[in-house]
Amino acid sequence: MKSRARHHQYPFALYAAGFSAQEPVFDQIANDTSSPQRIAANAPIMAFWILFYGAEAGDHIDTEILDPEGRVYIQNQTIQEKKKIRAMRYIGTRTQTKPLHAGTYAGRATLWRLLPGGQTITRSISSSVVVGNGN
User: Fold this and answer.
1) Less crowded by CB within 10 Å, the N or C end of the chain?
2) Cα-based distances in Å from 105 to 74, 94, 101, 133
3) Which domain holds residue 42?
4) Which stretches does DSSP call E strand in 80-119?
5) Is residue 37 included in any domain, yes or no?
């Protein structure tokens, strides 16, 4: 009997990323992956979300939001706990404790997986949103 080797050519895929002024809900995001072009400076929450396929236990997921000056506004590093065909991750914060400033915010996510032979496979995705008054 032949053994089947796992193919790691395309082990996972990041297929959507965006921002939200409220806590992202998987079913809503999965059905509509659009992201606003603008968020009001007085929005209650600033969240950056990603959707991806092919998550495996042990995958590393690094996410961050950069402020208009390019400084880290918020960041998170996590390790996937279990295999999922389709998954969503997001980072966010209440803006009452971490106020928004006018300008363009950039969200970036990097997923990486260490393969048995010591190779690392990495995929990244990004999105941006303009924060302003009166949006």
Assistant:
1) N
2) 11, 15, 9, 14
3) 13-132
4) 84-94, 103-114
5) yes
Instruction: Establish if 8 belongs to a structural domain.
Output: no
Residue 2: band (very low, low, confident or very high) from pLDDT cuts 50, 70, 90: very low
Structural domain contains residue 25: yes
Render pLDDT for 65-117 as a digit per residue (tens, 0 to 9).
999 999 999 999 999 999 988 889 999 999 999 999 999 999 999 999 988 88
Residue 66 host element (H or E):
strand 60-66
Question: For residue 106, how many C-alpha atoms fall within 13 Å in the half-sphere facing its CB?
Answer: 10
Mean pLDDT for 58-71 is: 96
CB atoms within 10 A of CB 38: 14
**55's tokens:** 């998550």
For residue 43, give the CATH number of its domain.
2.60.40.2550
Q: Specify the number of domains making up the chain.
A: 1
CA–CA distance, 29 with 5 (Å, rounded to integer): 34
